[in-house]
Design a protein that fits this description.
Layout lengths: L1 E12 L5 E7 L5 E7 L4 E8 L6 E10 L2 E12 L13 E14 L3 E4 L3 E5 L10 E10 L13 E3 L8 H35 L1
Parallel strand pairs: 8-11
Antiparallel strand pairs: 1-2, 1-10, 3-4, 4-5, 5-6, 6-7, 8-10, 9-10
Keywords: Cell projection, Cytoplasmic vesicle, Endosome, Glycoprotein, Membrane, Signal, Synapse, Transmembrane, Transmembrane helix
Membrane topology: Single-pass type I membrane protein
Function: Plays a role in short-term synaptic plasticity in a subset of GABAergic neurons in the brain.
């Protein structure tokens, strides 16, 4: 289950063989074309829009690793059409891919983030050169859902401030050490005081 606003930023080749920058907003009228819902390890979702002869595609793949789900890859296939990119060279298709786990959240929870995030994109899995970006905001997504719920589960927000267990443990150890030091110092001082008392006789 996915909800987000996304804008692609990429370069394309024009009719006079120059490079131009393009912005493309992912529309809201996409339809689910394919869904792979393996219950335990991987799940995928493909959303299509546009005319049949020039289908635009957004493909998302999720993984479940030891109870933590994440978006493992995001791929866009965008044919450049005359009504949106009039100066683009004919028969040109932009393909952008991000393959690195993002948006991690515990299973049975949804990932939620309202602030804009920019994700670098390459052409293929083997490429390291960044050829475009996708800017997303108002993101909420959840994979590996159980039951027949119609809404999102409780959200894990990207800006939530959660205190690590390490902090209270470290504070407790420091306090215990301080108490031991004070106790030992007190016992040593009392022993010296008693020794002086005996010597005065």
């Amino acid at each position: 289950m996915v909800k987000m606003a996304a804008q692609l930023n990429f370069t394309y080749e024009t009719k006079d063989n120059k490079l131009a920058y393009g912005l493309y907003n992912i529309p809201q009228n996409g339809k689910i074309e394919d869904a792979n819902c393996e219950p335990n390890t991987t799940q995928g979702l493909q959303i299509n829009w546009g005319p049949l002869e020039a289908q635009h595609i957004m493909a998302l793949h999720f993984s479940n690793n030891n109870g933590t789900t994440s978006l493992n890859s995001m791929m866009f296939t965008i044919p450049l059409m005359n009504n949106t990119f009039a100066d683009a060279k004919a028969n040109q298709t932009i393909q952008l891919l991000h393959r690195d786990p993002i948006f991690a959240t515990p299973i049975k929870m949804s990932y939620h983030c309202t602030r804009p995030q920019i994700i670098n994109m390459t052409h293929t899995i083997m490429d390291t050169e960044v050829v475009g970006t996708v800017k997303v905001h108002d993101v909420q997504m959840e994979a590996f859902r159980s039951g027949n719920k119609t809404g999102f589960s409780a959200a894990r927000d990207c800006d939530s401030t959660e205190t690590s267990d390490v902090v209270p443990i470290a504070v407790g150890i420091a306090l215990a050490a301080l108490i031991m030091i004070v106790l030992v110092s007190y016992l040593c001082a009392r022993r010296r005081s008693n020794s002086r008392g005996y010597m005065s006789f």
